[in-house]
Amino acid sequence: MLTKRIIPCLDIKDGRTVKGVNFVHLRDAGDPVELAQRYASEGADELVFLDISATEQKRKTLAALVYRVAEKLNIPFTVGGGISSVADVDILLKNGADKVSVNSSAVKRPALINELVAKFGSQCIVVAIDAKEIEGEWMVHLVGGKVPTKIKLFDWAKEVASRGAGEILFTSMDHDGTKEGFANDTLARLCSLVNIPIIASGGAGSMTHFEEAFSLGKADASLAASVFHFKEIEIVELKQRLKDQGIPVRL
Amino acid sequence: MKLVIIDYGAGNIQSIKFAFQRLGIEAVLSNDAQEISKADKVIFPGVGEASTAMAKLRESGLQDVITDLSQPVLGICLGMQLMCNSSKEGNTKGLGIFNVDVVKFKAAVKVPQIGWNRIENLEGELFKGLQEDYIYLVHSFYAPKSNETIATCTYGEAYSAALQKDNFYGVQFHPEKSGDYGAKILKNFLDL
Question: Quick check: B110 contacting A, CB < 8 Å?
Fold first, then answer.
């Protein structure tokens, strides 16, 4: 049986992990490679690296980091953040990334999804969608949720699936950072509308929230950053809890 | 030991190379027929779309080289699928090593299947000393069960997670991304 995935997300700036982590036994908590290995050993099913740096050196630094991660990590990982062309994706995959995620660039030019799928295959193309509810309607946002668009979430989700995306990473901007749970109703609707895996993001604060994202939200995977970074939730404990609740996990 | 990973422009080669590096083996990437034929062990990788990958393999002139190999060969993911008779993906004619036709998952399940699934009904040397566990898969097409099946997964129905015919092995999953368990499978392959 296919299991539900738990995915820690690491924010990366200039090749370093951003948020203050308080892991013990790490020689260098800012080193994404060490943190990635740590998560893998604790039972993470997959990792996402989100590059938030905005320097000219960005591409080179990120490719070098991807290479170092791929060398050491024996679970899959996705790289996202500012990817906007076939050439960007090519260099990341060649350096060992398993998947890439695109967001704003796909909204601005949807044909990018088709181009990436044609060249690299659906299996490695994740489309990240940030959305929030405005006057009762879920609307797509850009630039980490800062800039609203006139595109409706559910329309966009169907479109990215029909263009061949392998997965959707859905972040509710209304829930992100609240630690009050995922957008379960919206997730469930997304899951009923498209037949590709949906990764839930935004709102994780407790183990119950993960459980609900799977049971109520029907999500295929759940992603979180701070609850794992600050060790508010231990991955092993979380997976045991999910298993006890009858949710299939790799344990 | 000389391990060659066939480099025909359609593989997640870097990850596989790194996985063997972690086992202490420096694999050679090659599209040279002689070098592949002389290797002790050969990896046939593959990701992407079947007909495109098969076209690349033909362009490289390596299809007959592969079928003629007598040393242990491991096809991974699309590599395994291309070793079958055919694939519904792009109506592709395969290498015909495994006597099975690759078909697409039905819409009753999410396609592609992405994630960790349980590998069951393990048989043979590739899984020597291993219990059932979880492996990482990403795929939309699959090889149904056949008499060459040496492990199964269930997604909608039970299908071939691994195939074997003589010296030819194929795995649908990514051992290079399946944690410590995947590494043990690669180690078993090296020990064949």
Answer: yes
Number of cross-chain residue pairs from A and B with Cβ atoms under 8 Å apart: 92
How many other C-beta atoms can be found within 10 angstroms of the C-beta atom of residue A245?
14
pLDDT (tens digit per residue) in B43-87 = 999 888 899 899 999 999 999 999 999 999 999 999 999 999 999
Q: Do A31 and A227 contact (CB within 8 A), yes or no? A: no
From the CA of A97, how many Å to the nearest CA of chain B? 8
pLDDT in tens, A125-166: 999 999 999 999 999 999 777 789 999 999 999 999 999 999
Q: Which one from A45, A98, A130, A176 is the annotated catalytic residue? A: A130
Domains of chain A from N-terminus onward = 5-244 (3.20.20.70)
d(CA A5, CA A220): 7
Residues of B in contact with A67 (CB under 8 A): 14
Integer Cα distance of A129 and A145 in angstroms: 9
CATH classification (class only), B3-191: alpha beta
Question: Cis before residue B45, ω within 30 degrees of 0?
Answer: no
Closest CA to B49 of B109, B90, B80, B2: B90
The domain spans of chain B are 3-191
Active-site residue flag, A98 = no
- Whether residue B22 lies within 8 A of chain A, CB to CB, comes out as yes
Q: Does B70 touch chain A (CB under 8 A)?
A: no
Q: Which two tokens stand for residue A227?
A: 């609850």
What's the per-residue H, E or C state across A178-236?
CCCCCCHHHHHHHHHHCCCCEEEECCCCCHHHHHHHHHCCCCCEEEECHHHHCCCCCHH
Number of separate helices (H) and strands (E) present in chain A: 10, 11
Q: ipTM score here?
A: 0.94
Please report residues of B whose CB lies closer than 8 A to that of A118: 49
What residues contact residue B174 under an 8 Å CB cut-off, 6+ apart?
A76, B12, B15, B76, B77, B135, B136, B137, B138, B182
Beta pairing, strands A221-224 & B149-155: unpaired
Q: Which chain B residues are within 8 Å of A221, Cβ to Cβ?
A: 115
How far is B28 from chain A, CA to nearest CA, in Å?
16
